[in-house]
Amino acid sequence: MNVGVAHSEVNPNTRVMNSRGMWLTYALGVCMLHIVLLSIPFFSVPVAWTLTNVIHNLGMYVFLHAVKGTPFETPDQGKARLLTHWEQLDYGVQFTSSRKFFTISPIILYFLASFYTKYDPTHFILNTASLLTVLIPKLPQLHGVRIFGINKY
């Protein structure tokens, strides 16, 4: 029995991405980042798009694939302590709507960045590398896998 625990979820971290308005807030946050970068006078439009893509993907990599554990006290015997947020998302069930949304959104941002940079080779390489660093850890085959023991503990 957990005295003083205000939530009924075993791990509330698993449901936060499905909460009401989360996807809209996420999309508005990405738009706001892009508008802020566009308002900087010495950034051209291609640089602003590439920076939007790279900053978004870096932030999502850290938030979803690097940070482990949960900020909540959970009665799961410490199982969530060893999992990243992506692995905790929807209790590890693959191909849910929130997992699809957070997989497709960097791809859409990549297409937009590539289009607005007119497929310039430098921007294209940066955007592609950034996209791959976010998409590869999302593969179902890599669920719980720690390559070279990185982020094992």
TrEMBL record:
Q: Which domain of life is it from?
A: Eukaryota
Q: Enumerate the Gene Ontology biological process terms.
A: regulation of ceramide biosynthetic process; sphingolipid metabolic process
Location of the protein in the cell: Membrane
Q: How does it sit in the membrane?
A: Multi-pass membrane protein
Claim: Transmembrane helix is one of the keywords in the record? yes
What main location does UniProt list?
Answer: membrane
Tell me which GO cellular component terms the UniProt record holds.
endoplasmic reticulum membrane
Which keywords describe this protein according to UniProt? Membrane, Transmembrane, Transmembrane helix
Q: Can the keyword Transmembrane helix be found in this entry's annotation?
A: yes
Q: Which residues form the signal peptide?
A: none
Q: Which residues cross the membrane?
A: 23-43, 101-117
The record's similarity note reads:
Belongs to the ORM family.
Q: What does this protein do?
A: Plays an essential role in the homeostatic regulation of sphingolipid de novo biosynthesis by modulating the activity of the serine palmitoyltransferase (SPT) in response to ceramide levels. When complexed to SPT, the binding of ceramides to its N-terminus stabilizes a conformation that block SPT substrate entry, hence preventing SPT catalytic activity. Through this mechanism, maintains ceramide levels at sufficient concentrations for the production of complex sphingolipids, but which prevents the accumulation of ceramides to levels that trigger apoptosis.
The subunit structure is: Ceramide-sensitive subunit of the serine palmitoyltransferase (SPT) complex, which is also composed of SPTLC1, SPTLC2/3 and SPTSSA/B.
**Protein name per UniProt:** ORML1 protein
